[in-house]
Amino acid sequence: MCTLICGPKLAACGIMLSTWGVIMLAMLGIFFTTHSALLIEDVPLTSGDFNDTNPPQKVFDVYDRVGYNCFIASAIYTLIGAFSCYQMKLNRQKEYLVH
């Protein structure tokens, strides 16, 4: 059953925010998985990560984990964008039926 949950303005806002979220988080995911040195401050490292026998590999593993989390968040934004597009379609159908 087709259920209208949000209006046209909220659906348009959801589309815009999810588009920006997908672009931003996909780029961050790429930069984290390529181990960009500029993002070292955003990586949750502890002092135990540097006491390991192979500290660079431990740091790279943390970079990869943060990058994968960015890709997962990007996928969630994609789903929200699809939902917003569907709501926009339902709003247009409702507007067509009223006129």
Description of the structure:
- The protein is mostly helical and 99 residues long.
- The chain has one domain.
- Helix content is 71%, strand content 0%.
- It contains two helices and no strands.
- α1 packs antiparallel against α2.
- It is rod-shaped, with a radius of gyration of 20 Å.
- The chain starts with 7 loop residues before the first helix and ends with a helix.
- The model has no long low-confidence stretch (mean pLDDT 90).
Give a brief outline of the structure.
With 99 residues, this protein is an all-alpha fold. It has one domain (8-98).
Structural class: mainly alpha
Oligomer category: single chain
Span between termini: 22 Å
Domain count: the total is 1
- Mean pLDDT across all amino acids: 90
Give short descriptive properties of this protein:
2 helices, 99 residues, mainly alpha
